[in-house]
Design goal:
Elements lengths: L11 H10 L5 H12 L13 H9 L7 E7 L5 E6 L5 E8 L4 E4 L3 E3 L14 E4 L2 H15 L5 E4 L9 H12 L13 E5 L3 H10 L4 E5 L5 H7 L8 H15 L4 E6 L7 H14 L2 E6 L12 H12 L5 E4 L12 H8 L1
Parallel strand pairs: 4-7, 7-8, 8-9, 9-10, 10-11, 11-12
Antiparallel strand pairs: 1-2, 2-3, 3-4, 5-6
Helix pairs in contact: 1-2, 4-5, 6-8, 9-10
The structure holds iron/sulfur cluster.
The site of iron/sulfur cluster has 11 residues, from loops.
Length: about 350
């Protein structure tokens, strides 16, 4: 075969071409799409209404599930992290986040992360490679296998800067939201893409104009403070990020969310909280405050009282403000730390 194809995310057209190349009947395509998107079964060996010969051929052509779950680890509040081994032995993770009303899957978009935010475990080794659309969909598959059903929500807030892997992320979004037999028919309103403020990617997201949600990791309201948290190479000025936010919310018809990780003594001054509140009010944005989950001694979580003061300052101006305090610096509970532990073992 000359083309490189992946089974998860394949279109019916590519599947038909592939099946005709291997002299299989066209109706097998419908059966395969039913396994993929209706039954959420990516493992060709388990597609039991296909003849053995075809299943073997799919496996020989790598048209099957290519990743496996290496470890599952329970976290606080019922969360569960799955550490996933990819075909080249690289590792990524996805997280299942239950609440009484809904199940949310948190998915990764890259192996490692090029942004290298200074407080984040995932970015410490930089970017290793992008995930393909099929690999992103396989994370979803492993989550569905674990949960036993499709999730209610998906957030792309795992490892990586998704907008720096836009083509593959976009393809996975298409498949997740496609209401035809070629997708999972999830509402775009239940899917959130997160970015560290990569402006060209935000412009591509706005140009696509589909009603997916966008969350921007702002972390600071001015460039000087932001430079202490996010290194230069992928950092855009706050002004440009805010202009791109406006374009995104106009194009998608969705409110954007500002993610703001609070780090002790760096960005936790209540005066900064008031500026953040004013920005959120002007852009009709939500604010999600996150208490830093420490990677080392340099970036510590502010004391509880300081967190609450900051939240109150934002709430003077913004209407929708939430605070996430992850319990636990328990082993491997912060973003990327499960994977990091395997790398340094
Ligand atoms: S916080 Fe997100 S963007 Fe920053 S290094 Fe970590 S994974 Fe990358």
């Amino acid at each position: 075969m000359s083309r490189v194809l992946e089974l998860p995310g394949i279109s019916s057209r590519d599947l038909s071409l592939y099946l005709s190349e291997i002299n299989e009947k066209p109706f097998r395509g419908k059966q395969i799409l039913d396994w993929l998107y209706n039954k959420c079964e990516f493992n060709a060996d388990k597609m039991l209404n296909l003849p053995r010969g075809l299943r073997d051929k799919l496996i020989a052509d790598n048209m099957t599930l290519s990743s496996s779950v290496a470890e599952a680890e329970a976290g606080s509040g019922g969360t569960e992290k799955l550490l996933i081994t990819l075909k080249d032995q690289q590792m990524i993770e996805m997280v299942l986040i239950p609440s009484p009303e809904r199940m949310t899957f948190c998915l990764s978009t890259q192996v490692g992360c090029p942004v290298r935010c200074r407080f984040c475990a995932s970015g410490q080794h930089g970017l290793i490679r992008n995930l393909s659309a099929g690999e992103i969909l396989e994370e979803f598959y492993h989550g569905v296998q674990k949960h036993g059903a499709l999730p209610d929500n998906i957030v792309f807030m795992g490892i990586g800067e998704g907008l720096l892997n836009w083509k593959n992320l976009q393809r996975s979004l298409e498949v997740l939201s496609d209401a035809s037999p070629e997708g999972f028919n999830m509402s775009p309103r239940r899917i959130t893409v997160s970015t560290s403020g990569y402006v060209p990617g935000m412009e591509a997201f706005a140009a696509w104009a589909r009603p997916f949600n966008l969350a921007i990791s702002l972390h600071a309201v001015d460039d000087e403070v932001r430079s202490r948290l996010i290194p230069d190479h992928v950092r855009y000025p706050v002004d440009e990020i805010l202009k791109a936010c406006e374009k995104c919310s106009e194009a998608t018809g969705r409110m954007v969310t500002f993610e703001y990780t609070l780090v002790d003594g760096i960005n936790d001054d209540p005066a900064m909280g008031r500026v953040l509140g004013k920005i959120a009010r002007k852009l009709h944005a939500k604010v999600n405050l996150i208490a830093c989950n420490p990677v080392d001694d340099q970036f510590r979580r502010p004391p509880e009282k300081r967190l609450r003061q900051f939240q109150s300052a934002v709430e003077e101006f913004a209407t929708t403000v939430t605070m996430r305090i992850e319990k636990g610096s328990s082993a491997a509970s912060a973003c990327g730390q499960l994977r990091l532990r395997h790398i340094v073992k």
